[in-house]
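ok trying this again, last paste got cut off
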Amino acid sequence: MAIKATIFKVELNISDIDRNYFRDHKITIARHPSENDVRMMARLMAFILNAHDDLQFTQGVSSGDEPDLWRKDLTGNIEVWIETGQPDEKQIRKACGRAKEVIVYAYSGNSAYAWWKKIHSSVVRFRNLSVINLPTEVMQEMAALAQRTMDFSCTIQEGEVWISGQDKTVKICPVIWKERGK
């Protein structure tokens, strides 16, 4: 018998001053059996940083043909394709061909740096690609906040993110390795 995904319920109050976006979101995240809390919280962080009424979690790990999150327009075209981790050049090329904007969030410290060093020269040509590193220590702190039911207040200002919940506040400073359009 296959192990089923673990379901997490999250209430987010997002105040993104940088984008002038202020909304509450109630989301459900399915953590695949092969996924750890750090990766799940990296997906949650990707949602927070790109929050939109139409942004959706996909089958992700369970499907090799979908990103972790995406936002589609009314015709079904992919506006934003979001991956967490270290996708290979082929996956990035495919995503860049299918979506208007592609964002990759790396989060695993030294292996993320090694991945970026290896892949950088082959993906820098994609003008619709952004690559952002989420610092390992902070993602470990985020993973420690993982519970089946979570309630977070999130403030984003000048590229810094403050997440408060479970009587703790975590400050995250994502590092842009490649900016879209450049």
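PB: full thing came through this time. The CA atoms of residues 65 and 94 lie 10 Å apart.
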